[in-house]
Design a protein that fits this description.
By secondary structure, the chain is mostly helical. It has 4 helices and no strands. The relative contact order is 0.18.
Length: about 90
């Protein structure tokens, strides 16, 4: 089982890579998605989930950015998170 800090770093790295808001493209600093990564990690830990569902990604991004997100993009991000967490 990964620690909370490990989960946060994994989630942050994957969200940064996918850059759903285009923040990295705009030149924002690394860890710009850290608040979202922390929220996602806390949900996974609190609910004792071993898999990250696309709805979790969608709901956190919607809450933080007040913008609707494509569920396919959220599924892609959650699939990458699940793959990284299973290693």
């Amino acid at each position: 089982m990964k620690t909370e800090d490990e989960i946060i770093l994994i989630v942050n790295r994957i969200i940064e890579k996918n850059d759903p808001m285009g923040l990295m493209t705009l030149g924002c600093p690394k860890n710009e998605y850290m608040p979202e990564a922390k929220l996602i990690a806390k949900i996974l830990i609190k609910k004792n989930l071993t898999m990250c569902e696309p709805k979790i990604i969608h709901d956190v991004l919607l809450k933080m950015f007040d913008q609707e997100f494509d569920l396919e993009e959220c599924k892609h991000i959650s699939d990458e998170i699940n793959k990284a967490l299973s290693c």
